[in-house]
Design a protein that fits this description.
Chain lengths: 562, 562
């Protein structure tokens, strides 16, 4: 069953992460002054795949793609929105969570990547709250089960209707033999700090918890009678808006459709190019920095809008990563390359730094931060090749630090008169883009040498050639052109011969040296356990809970504890 | 293949965690003054199971059981030993790691529990170093591969012979399609703080890294020529001994054989009793506190030796947990009960607290800490039943805090004239027994209420009845005798009906609210990923790397990345 490949609905042949509100089937985004409402109204006949119906506001990846899009637009298109009400447009149901038929019929790889993306989307809500003063209120008007409650958990405040029947629940363990895998368990004990024994009770009661106990156990923040609900929500929105530091204009920047063209062996965006070598199972992502003149003013930057290179490149890179993750399982290695004039890239970084308090620059940098975090948890070997003509400067240099390995060419390549490659640190490498575990990539890289990451600030804006970059520990290997081709080829060939599963586990462990945070715990402890369970016959076997759900037959479990 | 149950060697029908140096087949423990030598000399014909030979100092669980025993004896029997040399008694090989044939032929459950135990054993080396001034030096005289290098990683200093061929390596990913799962990946980047890209290179080079690069990359501490090795080891031992705070007498406390009797439905120790209800899949562990008079003096405590109740109970409980984990997979739930006079238990705790600087009391408390940590990572539902006649006081109350849930009886049981149950906090609940993630169980329990754990100190040594214990959040439910039997029965029945895998994942996530440390990362991030990989066909399938290792046939991998 787990390998029964589902068909995408409507004859589609890949999962598209691009959408816009005019195409939403499941959400309605409306804005009134400082308050936006994201109303979930899942079209049960518009599932991403064939073979199931999205009843009761249950969701699949397609629903979450729209949510992620809406959240991104709230950041860029609605800089004045301080509060977002997350509501259901359906009666007596908030959200029934991930669709069980969808899960039951999905391949392991889809389940894992579905959970990863939904986790990232939930994190982006918390990121908006923490960094852009955009607070979220979940208005739970009826059942919030499983992923539905996990959605509420990602908000700042959970207001639940006191109608005698509405409950919040995480019924996965009892009903489906899997975990609430979209951050639920971690958020219950680490964010809402529900006492662990209460959490144990809550997560094993199919029907969930309602009423005063839900407040007392910290599962929700408020319980409000039906007649007072709307007034209370309005008041709560005002309270949160008053505390928000968000001070954007009423007009934001419209995120226009990406310029994206598919070809047989890859795809092309405006400044990102993806070349897929199917035989070697390698995707090469090349990011090009234009020579374009910088905006003359902040107004001009806003006028450039989604064509402003730092934003355009972030969107294109984000789409690339999601595309590869979900549509190209056969790709095992991602190579990052960059092209352009280092002076241009440096200028963009300096420009963003200088305008860091401008709402648009602020949002761009936080978006780059999230894109880089997405790369960190991408289960592909990541390699950076720093060659003549490349442009690993500041923000783009983070790609080299996110990579599992980087190679830099010493000097020039025979027959190529371009100057030797340079790597440049900018202020952006020292705090703008923390990883999910809270450290910058340089801090995590140089855990052994206290103060080294900070000392590197002396090199800000200096062009570092390969010897220096290697000496400073910024690249893994510096190779001359005699060794380059051979060493890189042997490495890539060897890498692609290893078990993809073992590499995934290896990389997930080595990339995050140092502390863990709630966010990183979700991708480590919770996700890894869920992935384990997603392979166990008790969940996904023919007699397992996912297959038997709704059939009237009880699952047959192997009762041995591992 | 993964379900091909192996036969234990020599007709044994369970894995015994009890041993003593006279029975060691794989290690030699010798002591000269302040320096002990633990020499690994694996008897290749003395594997725990039939069907493989432990060549080249490769190991299985049986080898690690002896190591764990030796480490415990070093704490108690050798209070004057300040430095332990971890060496190989074989020529040109330090340790080849976990035996691959053993892994290839093991059930998933055995692999998982084997890794868990070896991780705990490595942690106990670090615990000895940090808390008892017993420093470890690995003397790497030849190949230290996989688990062999992981063993070295658990020491304070790694000295490697510079013979031109000796290397350290973690070849698991390349050779076996699994992870170095005994803490290796985490220790490489979090303990030794090897740069992540260097770690990536190291962990994918089958032959490992030798010579100066091993030092430069922080994989080892020193490289010493063969002719100078012995002198250097002696000197390093003196250096570390000089810095140790350990000041025990030359005579320690002999750990006598446990008094343990198996019966059809459980087993009995001196003060611990285990009753297994096979139909319900529940093991009830009852710990009895004796009325025995306290030792009149510290000398008298030492004279009581391994019969001193706090030590005896820790050893018996430790053996119980290990026995259930490894020999009773069908048991899904562990119920903790206690028996005895709360005044006695309180007196023991106060006695240990008063003598906390005495080496023997110090070791006992740290041993209890490790036993409690072992319980925290035990993949069984843990329940505490606090009833009349029970004795959940201080150290024993930690069992209630380690439990996923606790039930306490309000008042008396009809027809039972014993006084109502009491729960008592002692000083020991406020720091003596931190969890692997660094917090006490009370701190982790009350994460939501800053200062609450500390405020509870006001209740030290006070007998708390059920209402108070519930009010203070120390038990999950307080029930009167009308509800008790029914509620507890329904809970246990329901619990045992759930998927064991989902419960394992649930509990592993809810038990560790708060920060993560290197130690907890090993049991979370690393272990969970390894468990995932241990189920993947690329590792354990018929064409997978474990099955094909040594056959001359290359494994056939499903190359899709999940």
């Amino acid at each position: 069953m787990t390998d029964a490949k589902r068909k995408l609905a409507n004859g589609k042949d890949f999962i598209d992460f691009q959408t816009d509100p005019s195409r939403y089937r499941h959400w309605r985004l409306s804005v009134t002054g400082e308050v936006a409402t994201l109303a979930m109204d899942v079209d049960e006949n518009a599932g991403l795949y064939e073979g199931y119906q999205l009843k009761l506001n249950s969701y699949d990846l397609g629903v979450d793609i729209e949510l992620a899009d809406a959240l991104l637009r709230l950041r860029f298109e609605h800089p004045n929105v301080k509060v977002v009400l997350l509501r259901s447009a359906k009666d007596r149901v908030f959200c029934a969570g991930a669709n069980i038929r969808m899960l039951a019929g999905s391949e392991h790889s889809h389940k894992v990547n579905f959970c990863k993306f939904t986790n990232e989307t939930r994190n982006s809500m918390e990121d908006a709250s923490e960094h852009s003063g955009q607070r979220f209120i979940a208005v739970v008007n009826g059942t919030a089960a499983g992923g539905g409650y996990e959605l509420a958990l990602a908000t700042d405040r959970i207001i639940m209707i006191d109608d005698g029947s509405t409950a919040v629940s995480l019924p996965e363990v009892a009903l489906l033999a899997v975990l609430p895998g979209t951050g639920g368990l971690t958020r219950v004990v680490d964010k809402r700090m529900v006492r662990r024994d209460h959490a144990d009770v809550f997560c094993t009661i199919e029907e969930g918890i309602k009423g005063r106990r839900a407040v007392k156990w910290r599962l929700i923040d408020e319980l409000v009678s039906p007649s007072k609900l709307e007034n209370r929500v309005t008041l709560a929105a005002s309270e949160l808006a008053a505390k928000s530091g968000r001070e954007g204009p009423s007009e934001g920047v419209k995120l226009k459709a990406l310029d994206r063209k598919f070809r047989a062996d890859g795809l092309d965006y405006g400044c990102v190019k993806v070349d897929i070598d199917a035989a070697q199972r390698i995707a090469t992502i090349t990011i090009r920095v234009p020579d374009a003149a910088l905006p003359a003013s902040a107004d001009d930057m806003v006028k450039q809008g989604s064509q402003f290179w730092p934003l355009q490149s972030a969107r294109e890179l984000d789409d690339t990563i999601l595309h590869l993750r979900n549509n190209a399982y056969e790709v095992g290695t991602i190579i990052f390359k960059t092209e352009g004039d280092p002076a241009s890239a440096l200028a963009f970084d300096q420009y963003l730094e200088a305008h860091r308090d401008h709402w648009f620059a602020h949002e761009i940098r936080h978006y780059w931060k999230r894109v880089l975090k997405r790369i960190d948890v991408t289960s592909r070997t990541l390699v950076a090749l720093v060659e003549p003509g490349s442009c690993f400067v500041g923000t783009l240099a983070e790609l080299a630090f996110a990579a599992d390995r980087s190679y830099m060419l010493l000097g020039q390549m025979q027959g190529d008169n371009r100057p030797p490659a340079k790597l440049v640190l900018t202020r952006a490498n020292f705090g703008a883009y923390p990883m999910s575990h809270g450290l910058t990539r340089l801090q995590s890289r140089f855990l052994a040498e206290q103060g080294k990451a900070a000392a590197l600030e002396q090199n800000i804006d200096r062009a570092l050639e390969a010897e220096q970059a290697e000496e400073l520990g910024l690249v893994t290997f510096a190779l001359d052109d005699i060794d380059w081709a051979n060493e890189v080829r042997v490495f890539l060939e060897e890498r692609t011969s290893f078990s993809p599963d073992a590499l995934t586990g290896l990389e997930a462990n080595l990339r995050f040296a140092g502390p863990e945070t709630m966010e990183s715990k979700i991708f480590a402890r919770l996700t890894a356990w869920q992935n384990w369970i997603f392979q166990r016959p008790n969940a996904v076997g023919e007699e397992g809970a996912l297959a038997r759900y709704g059939t009237g037959r009880r699952p047959a479990y192997d009762m041995r504890r591992v």
